[in-house]
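Re: the 69-residue chain
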Amino acid sequence: MPAAALTPPEAARWAARSGLPLPDDRHDAVAAVAAHIHSVVSTLRELDFADVPPAASYRVGEEKPDAAA
């Protein structure tokens, strides 16, 4: 669902379904924060991480030798 499509009543309904009922005065703020988070995640999804190893392969203190050295 696009971030713009999340309305305050939908945010309240989703929160209630998750067991987190929202006071009426929080619906607008929660919908706005959800839209912001969606825009940040959308930007991250556009990044190319093809040459980046998964975090599980990182070992503290073990560095690969520099190819330029």
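The mean pLDDT is 84.
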